[in-house]
Amino acid sequence: MELTAENPILKKKVITYGIILGVVSFILALASMYVTKNGTSLMTSAIYAGAINYVPFLILVVIFCRSLRSANGGYWSFTTALKNIFIMLAITATIGTIGTMLLNWQMPGFQDAVLENTKNMTLEFYESANATDEQIDDIMAKLDQQQEALGSLSIGQNIFGLFIYFLVYFVFALILAAIFKKEAPIFKRVENDDAAHPWQNDANQQV
């Protein structure tokens, strides 16, 4: 039977897993940025950075969703699953955003170095692909704009970015809730045969 949404064990796990995912996702983001910062090939760096950033995160999300369902008695409706998974992911996004703000504050040159190397790898990639000068100039101008925008992000812009994360994670939570929902059975199976057939018990006692 599905427990109520006020299940204290479930609520505690939702918060705990959200914090763990937030810290892990921030560490994975740092690792992927380090790979990009020291990469020599645009495609190779993108593949490795993407694998580092997303694969462990998705594995943890799956493990945590299954654990949350177990904490709710092994069953939860789509609505219950959506609510708890989204809260977990919202905590994750909040911690990741705060971590990124602190990183930019404490190490302002780190992301610049990442973007500079990205620009160098992008230039080499398009030159090797025989792109025209106009195409290369256009791409490099866009990267320059991104670098300038990243260096001048205000607290309000970071908060706006957090709400964008919330929207993305809500869609992700919808998908996960559809996958991991498990409705409780309407009729509960009776394991005790004597309880299921009390008249047989009475007959045996009379004999």
Count of beta strands: 0
The run of helices and strands is: HHHHHHHH
Straight-line N-to-C gap: 39 Å
Give the integer mean of the pLDDT values. Answer: 83
% residues in beta strands? under 5%
Major sheet description = none
Rg from alpha-carbon coordinates: 26 Å
Tell me roughly what share of residues is in helical segments.
Answer: over 70%
Class derived from helix and strand content: mainly alpha
Description of the structure:
The protein has 207 residues and is an all-alpha fold. Helices cover 81% and strands 0% of the residues. The chain is built from 8 helices and no strands. Helix 3 (78-106) packs antiparallel against helix 6 (155-180) and helix 4 (108-128) runs antiparallel to helix 5. Mean pLDDT is 83; it is low at 1-5 and 195-207.
